[in-house]
Description:
- It is built from three helices and five strands.
- The chain has a five-stranded antiparallel beta sheet.
- It has two domains: 3-61 and 139-161; 64-132, CATH 2.40.50.
- By secondary structure, it is an alpha+beta fold.
- It starts with a helix and ends with a helix.
- The protein is 52% helix and 28% strand.
- The protein has helices spanning 3-28, 33-62, 133-161, and strands at 65-78, 84-94, 97-102, 117-123, 126-132.
- Helix 1 packs antiparallel against helix 2 (33-62) and helix 2 (33-62) runs antiparallel to helix 3 (133-161).
Amino acid sequence: MNNENGFILKNILICVALIFAAVAGSFIFTDHITQIVLMTIGLIFMIVARIIETLNIDKKERCSYTTFATITGQSAKTDSNGSTSYYPVYTYTYAGKEYTTVSSTTDSTIRKRIGDEVEIFLNPDDPEDSYIADYQKTIQLLQRVFQVIGIILLAAGAATLFL
């Protein structure tokens, strides 16, 4: 198992342990079910925030080289519900070689058009491993939103538990 898989597995095991502790706690404190449910949902939000943060940290460590790319197209992907999402295709040059990559993040919040130049980060050891800087900021915002909601729900559940 490589270091990246071990890191993700460790975080998954921590999340499973926290969920197990929350469920066990709900059986112990059955007369405070609303509070336990609030705390459990808050904990789940915090776990999701932690997973997002972990993946971001890992990607930032790998992709340390900054350059610019040009949006050259869009890739449409339709899910099982028939909903279509569009992912920007961007092209960049590194060490004299041209790379074209489809973003793993949909273009629903940040509207980039074909021909736009964007800042990207790439892995110097594997130049095909890259991401658009603007999209990473959106993912960080999502992580913070999950974290704040988790803290609020956890605190509300704990506060009402002791009142």
